[in-house]
Specification:
Elements lengths: L1 H24 L14 H5 L5 H17 L1
Length: 67
Amino acid sequence: MIKISLLSMLIIAIAVALMCVRLFVIKDGTIKSQHIKDNPYLKSKNIHCVLDQDREARARKKKINND
């Protein structure tokens, strides 16, 4: 049980270290945004996040109901 716990902690430590490499190696390194609205490819395909899509759908429904 202890061996598995130590192995798991080692794997997690290596993963965290690899994610931080960009911050330390690259000058002015930053973590890129993982949000859909910041992805140029998805933006070119006119794909929005679910919150924006829901807001647009509610606005269309409200407009239809008011007409």
